[in-house]
Amino acid sequence: MKNSTAVLAEETGEPVAARAENISKRYSTGDTAVAALDGVSLNIPRGQFAGIMGPSGSGKSTLMHCMAGLDSVDSGRVFVGDQDVTDLNEKQLTRLRRDRIGFIFQSFNLLPTLTALENIVLPIRLAGRTPDQDWLDSVIETTGLRERLDHRPNQLSGGQQQRVACARALAGKPDVIFADEPTGNLDSRSGAEVLGFLQKSVRQTGQTIVMVTHDPVAAAYTDHVIFLSDGRVVDRMPEPTAEKVLERLKRFEPARASGRAPGEQGRI
Ligand SMILES: Nc1ncnc2c1ncn2[C@@H]1O[C@H](COP(=O)(O)OP(=O)(O)OP(=O)(O)O)[C@@H](O)[C@H]1O
């Protein structure tokens, strides 16, 4: 953690890695406007693996993009650590994303011409920093990719590629990692490996991760799930299990609820 001043959650007094304060965001298309986020407030404590769930269109991606400084809010405030992100200009946002935030996407987004190791250290190099070798070693050890570091992405399985993407996100020791459906393109075995790896990085190194997922099995790897519906936080679940999450999802409007068995990938 690079901050000297810890931001504390008002309710619990815990240090906070990321915070949304009453944020709203509307999208206008032609004559109609959609309230993608409608007064969302939440704290992500440091060292937590948080899940964001909810029906399709409930605002999960918008929330993640706004909290990660990829999109602006119409009202409310967003903090990453002690940094108020809301009024930063594009240049400052680029620096914030580069230095303090890690990203993991459904499509692994690796550069095909670079080796696994070169992909892992690319953001650090682009930031003009030198990788912390001990830290890098421990991240690589946790990924189980040591024997594959000189392989290019097309020589790696999907699960291995996503583990490279996870290592890339972790390598710069960001305040928070935002993961958008990180197992959406993986079979259940590779998905379990990636989720196990993310969980381990939270438990062993105190990394903070916020993960959007539709999959109750994936959500069960997190410490705490936040449920969105129609752009609002409608429920929370500490210590989630796949069964409890699936039951909760079924209580959304029947037309929007998933009805899938735990472990099935896909949209709600
Ligand atoms: N760029 C955009 N322009 C117009 N409307 C948008 C845009 N992005 C999102 N929306 C709308 O905002 C609402 C929330 O979308 P968002 O993508 O955040 O939901 P989501 O919960 O991530 O959905 P999904 O699970 O299907 O990915 C939806 O009604 C969506 O149609």
Describe the structure using short key phrases:
single chain; 10 strands; alpha/beta; 4-stranded antiparallel sheet; 32% helix; Rossmann fold; binds adenosine-5'-triphosphate; 6-stranded mixed sheet; 268 residues; 25% strand
What is the gist of this entry?
The chain has helices at residues 60-67, 90-100, 116-126, 133-143, 158-171, 188-205, 216-219, 242-250; strands at residues 16-29, 32-45, 49-53, 75-80, 83-84, 101-104, 176-180, 209-212, 224-229, 232-238. It is α/β, with parallel strands linked by helices. Bound molecules: adenosine-5'-triphosphate (ATP).
Q: Would you count the extended β strands for me? A: 10
Strand-and-helix sequence, N→C? EEEHEEHEHHHEHEHEEH
The whole-angstrom Rg is 18 Å
The CATH superfamily of the domain at 16-107 and 174-250 is known as P-loop containing nucleotide triphosphate hydrolases
Order of strands across the biggest sheet? 6-7-8-3-9-10
Count every helix, treating DSSP H or I runs of 4 or more residues as helices. Answer: 8
Major β-sheet profile: 6 strands, mixed
Distance between the termini: 35 Å
CATH architecture of the domain at 16-107 and 174-250: 3-Layer(aba) Sandwich
Mean pLDDT, all residues: 88
CATH top level class name of the domain at 16-107 and 174-250: Alpha Beta
- Shape field: globular
The amount of helix comes to 25-40%
